[in-house]
Amino acid sequence: MFIQWIFLISSVVLASSKRISERIVGGYSVPISSVPWQASIQEHGIHQCGAAIYSDQILITAAHCFPQHPYGYTVRVGSTNRNFGGQVAEIANIIVHEGHHETHNISINDIAVIKLSSRLRMDDTVRSIPLADSTPPMGSPASVSGWGRVGYNQPQSDILLETAVSISNWYSCRYSYRQIIHITKDMICASGPGRDACTFDSGGPLVSDGKLVGIVSFGRGCASPDYPGVYVNVAKYKPWILSAIQRI
């Protein structure tokens, strides 16, 4: 899959075969019932990206998680382990943001809506999460979860991990990335000491105050103290998300 997170050694290194990447660093294991909106996007049964459950048939993820012609993709929900358990559903359709493109190997308008071929059985382990109406202020506590790498060049976690971060100052984040990419108001940054998302966490949920505020998109390194993780700002894309749901 094409997981996005920037690992700079002397240049940007892609976390998957073609893109940048993310993972949960400095995390702790949690049961799926603690984050029941978390989903795993899988290619031929292998975890590639995270996603957030919006309803029993609609999920939200990062646009860069899908190739131009996705084949063999399914979604696993309701399981703490990425390899088995829970429910597995086929993907019926995907709408990627019309403005999605890449600049310096970083996805812009990095958001997509998924429609499943069947409805999920909602319970304590499979639950939807509401979309944020506004961008949370700097310093707001948040959490990010997934099955990504537990450190740079480290293995993926088989068990769901979560870590606590806080919303970063947008202007400071923009300054940090000034030589790499232009951080826009459509992006939200979050960080914590030694805590971050990483490779194979792309598309996963950033949650604050019980609402989906961000979608894991990219970052430089994993838990780099100088570079917060960058997420799709869900509040800014909410009109597009609701329109895509109507069209899908």
Automatic annotation (TrEMBL):
E.C. number(s) listed in UniProt: 3.4.21.4
UniProt xrefs under Pfam families: Trypsin
Domain of life: Eukaryota
Similarity comment text for this entry: Belongs to the peptidase S1 family.
GO cellular component, one term: extracellular region
Residues covered by the Peptidase S1 domain: 24-246
Signal peptide: 1-17
Protein name: trypsin
GO molecular function: serine-type endopeptidase activity
Catalysed transformations (reactions): Preferential cleavage: Arg-|-Xaa, Lys-|-Xaa
SUPFAM superfamilies xrefs: Trypsin-like serine proteases
Source organism of the structure: Drosophila suzukii
Keyword Signal: yes
GO biological process terms, semicolon-separated: proteolysis
Cell compartments where the protein resides: Secreted, Extracellular space
Record keywords: Disulfide bond, Hydrolase, Protease, Serine protease, Signal, Zymogen
